[in-house]
Each structure stands twice: as structure tokens, then as C-alpha cells.
Amino acid sequence: MTETELLVQDAISKICGIETAQLHPDAILTELGVDSLAAAEILVEVEIRLGRDLPAHLLRRLEDAQTIRAIAAGLDSGFGSSPSRGPA
């Protein structure tokens, strides 16, 4: 997994209480019980872990992402490269 995928995986694990071993990068998040409220909380957790706010256009794109890999790819493309981690 990429650094960004691991960041997203950790955020999902924290918010949803799902063990990271169960979070395959291509698993459909709704099938794991991630609803829209949890998805919003996950994006806030990602912002905290990055140490910066995500741009509104990127947030809108990420809302439609259904997998860890898709969220990570959206983050990477939204920032032009892997987003650097802020203080955790």
C-alpha cells in the first residue's frame, strides 16, 4: 500500500473501529458499514493527519470515492503528488 493509502486506512480504522487487516485498499467501504456520516468524519480525520484543510473541490471528489485506493488516488491527484503528513 502507498503512504497515502495507509493514511486513509488508519483514519478509517480509527473512525469506524475496523481492524486495519480488514481494510483492503479495494474493499467497497459501504460494504464495510461506512455510511455518509462516517465518510465525513474520515475526511476530517484525514485533514487532521495531514495538518491542513482539504480544498473544497477535492472534498467533493472524495465524497464519491468508494475505496481506500480511490480516496488515496484522489488525494494524490488533488495535491499533485503524495500529500505530506502533518503532525499526527
Detailed description of the structure:
The structure is a single chain. The chain has 88 residues and is mainly alpha-helical. The protein has one domain (3-79): ACP-like (Non-ribosomal Peptide Synthetase Peptidyl Carrier Protein, Chain A). It is built from four helices and no strands. It has helices at 3-16, 36-50, 56-63, 68-79. Helix 1 (3-16) crosses helix 2 (36-50). The two termini are 19 Å apart. The model has no long low-confidence stretch (mean pLDDT 84).
What structural keywords apply?
88 residues, 56% helix, Non-ribosomal Peptide Synthetase Peptidyl Carrier Protein, Chain A
Per-chain topology:
Elements (H helix, E strand, L loop, with lengths): L2 H14 L19 H15 L5 H8 L4 H12 L9
Number of strands: 0
End-to-end separation in angstroms reads 19 Å
Structural domains: how many: 1
- What composes the largest sheet? none
Please give the radius of gyration in angstroms: 12 Å
Q: Which term fits the overall shape?
A: globular
SS content category: mainly alpha
Helix percentage range: 55-70%
- Low-confidence runs: none
In short:
This protein has 88 residues and is an all-alpha fold.
